[in-house]
Amino acid sequence: MRINQNTSIDCGNLVLVPYLERHVLKYHNWMKNPKLQELTCSEPLTLEEEFQMQKSWLEDEDKLTFIVIYRQGVENKKPQILHEILFHRNEDMIGDVNMFLTEGYEEVEDDPAAAEDENQNSSTYTQGELELMIAKPEYRGKGLGTTIAEAFLYYMEVSGLVASKGIAKYIIKVGSKNVPSLRLFKKIGFQQTKYVACFDQVEMEKPLH
Q: Of 97, 100, 98, 93, whose CA–CA distance to 30 is shortest?
């Protein structure tokens, strides 16, 4: 989204910055890893496609992403929203966090008076599908994922995006064997709502209203 093109979220040892062209090559090399493809339920892109995707993440109004930077020797702190891109080195990239905004549907109770009107049998809402990836294995299992997710959701609130986009809930989709991710999202308030057997995937959600 354009709203975060010049924004950083400073958490001390972790800094979230916009996904820039300078990050693409490293990110592309990460996503060649079959294990990361499996963990993120994603397909590999060509380098040209990745550059196009980077531009899309930066401009499209239904996508928001940050690259995660780890600063060695800096203490963790509460997230602070800065209206600038903090200086950082590409070699300090450890992952990313992003969200897609999509339309969800909810069945409503049958109303005999509206039986002939299909539009009365369901309601729509906006949902944010959250994805988080720590690409470097040595940074997993240290509690960093929780800090990243909470900082991202904090930004969604204070930036006004939850209100302006009318987001009713957050959702995540995670492979059933990805126990650390399932544990992380449960810790920050997500509850399992569905298991999709054909993808061996668990869906969880966190209502906002």
A: 93
Domains of the chain by residue range:
2-107+123-207
pTM exceeds 0.70: yes
Report the SS3 class of residue 1: coil
Query: How far, in Å, CA of 96 to CA of 18, rounded?
Result: 10
CATH number at 2-107+123-207: 3.40.630.30
Beta bridge partners of 123: 106
Task: Say how many C-beta atoms besides its own lie within 10 A of residue 100's C-beta.
Answer: 15
Residue pLDDT, tens place only, 151-170: 999 999 999 999 999 999 99
What does each C-alpha distance from 166 to 58, 63, 122, 150 come to in angstroms?
20, 14, 17, 19
